[in-house]
# Entry
Amino acid sequence: MRQLYLRDHATDLRGTTIIRDHQGRSRYLLVGKWGIHYDVLSLYSISGTLLAEVKQQSLGMLPKFSLYLNRQRVGTVGKSLGFVRQVIYIRGLNWFIVGSPLAGRYRVFQGNRKVFSIQPVELTGSYYHELKVEQEADEPLAILVASVLDHWARHGQRSAKRLRFRKTRLSGSFGMDFSHNINNAQHR
# Structure
């Protein structure tokens, strides 16, 4: 089993993320972006060999992504509607993801074999995702699946923060305007 550390892809080097092992050695490069139909994240070895890719197939509330290993499509993963606990099935690989998007902790299984686990850790003042991958051959796809899960979690957090800090404003066709002020409600 090897431990790999994946920094938040959106904040690391503007589109390039270096995946390191537990000794701080660079192992992989993750390159690409999210957000538009058919966007791609590509995983390269440090020597520059393309190992795996994840391609966004659809947008919306339940986006789908295709996983490629050595340029061959090996699986499809789609978002589920779970908020506290999620169970996600990756078609083609027969992997089950079980975990919590709120805690950022996941375990991935193929049958009764644990493939890898993900948990957030703080290292040198920054937050990373620690991947504990059981077999080295599974590392490329594990990194890409972790990136997809991180993308979904960050998207949900941005939406929750926007809703939490926005003042609610109601207006109707009666010419009246109502505003809800959170601070006044706390002082009553």
Q: What stands out?
A: Confidence is low (pLDDT under 50) at residues 157-188. The first helix runs from residue 139 to 165. The first strand starts at residue 2 and ends at 7. The radius of gyration is 19 Å.
